[in-house]
């Protein structure tokens, strides 16, 4: 569990073009994560 002002653990995800992106690539910047279902899937 993270507390307020704790740093989020680093992780890596693929973007919509298949490029790997790490959270640490944005260190010092504000980040908003938005997860959505792939096309043609329920959700």
SSE inventory with pairings:
Elements: E1 12-14, E2 20-22
Antiparallel strand pairs: 1-2
Percent of residues in helical segments? under 10%
Care to count the β-strands? 2
Could you state the order of secondary-structure elements as H and E?
EE
Strand content: 5-15%
Main-sheet strand order equals: 1-2
Structural class estimated from helices and strands: mainly beta
Radius of gyration from CA coordinates: 13 Å
Low-confidence stretches are none
Number of helices: 0
Shape: extended
Distance between the termini: 26 Å
Description:
This protein is mainly beta and 43 residues long. The chain has strands at 12-14, 20-22. The chain has a two-stranded antiparallel ribbon with strand order 1-2. It is extended and about 35 Å long. The model has no long low-confidence stretch (mean pLDDT 86).
In short:
With 43 residues, the chain is mainly β.
Features:
extended, mainly beta, 43 residues, two-stranded antiparallel sheet, 0% helix
